[in-house]
Design a protein that fits this description.
With 258 residues, the protein is mainly alpha-helical. A two-stranded antiparallel sheet has the order 1-2. The termini are far apart. The protein is globular, with a radius of gyration of 23 Å. Helices cover 68% and strands 3% of the residues. α2 packs parallel to α10. Keywords: Cell membrane, Membrane, Transmembrane, Transmembrane helix. InterPro entries: ABC/ECF_trnsptr_transmembrane, ECF_CbiQ, ECF_transporter_component.
Amino acid sequence: MGAGHAHPLYRHAGGPLHRLPAEVKVVALVVFVLAVVAAPRQMLWPYAMFAAVLVAVWAVGRIPLRWILPRMLIEAPFVVLAVLLPFSEGGERITVAGLQLSVAGLWAAWGIVIKGTLGVAASLTLAASTTAAELPLALSRLGVPAMMTSVLVLMIRYVDLLAAELARMRMARVSRGDSPRALHQAGAIAKGVGALFLRSYERGERVYVAMLSRGFDGRMPELAGVAAVPRATTTQWTLALLPAAAGVAVAGSAWVLR
């Protein structure tokens, strides 16, 4: 896995965000998301401010809305869950379009949807501007335990291999007359998933033995090319944390004015 390895969410734009060291972007993301989560859900204006901060970051990073919006559909299952809350929660109820809805459920649904949406949007911003190869080094520089970094490196390396093997298994079933959409093929699909799990487990054991035979001591070596990226300067830290600081200021102001 070289320095040029990129995941499907990476956007080759070459903007200012792409040139920032990954560790500052990771810290900025965590602080911004914590600020969003901490903001009171009963107020609307803080979330408009959070969204404005993200739009400003996208403009600076050359990440267009038409790229961000389709990829935010990943949060659709959470939206479906949130829609059910106004019907299932108790307490005071109001009538909306002939439906009796819980006030507490509406606020809970609003909190899940808006905070989840902003969190996904912020995460996509990091993913769009950071290659997969940069993340392990960033986590290592931030003091994340070596074992967690090792797991992340191996996951990034082998998730594509597992996806390709799953595609080959599906193609093999189809070539033998299987119809993946047919309900009676559910058993065959389940057996295929089980076989893939066993193959993955066996592959993991072989890889681990091979790593031990090459002197693996629990720490991943720094990747060539990526390791040559210099550490973030004070200026880069300051610039990268400005959106996060703005998020903290918005959340703090919301609680003061609540």
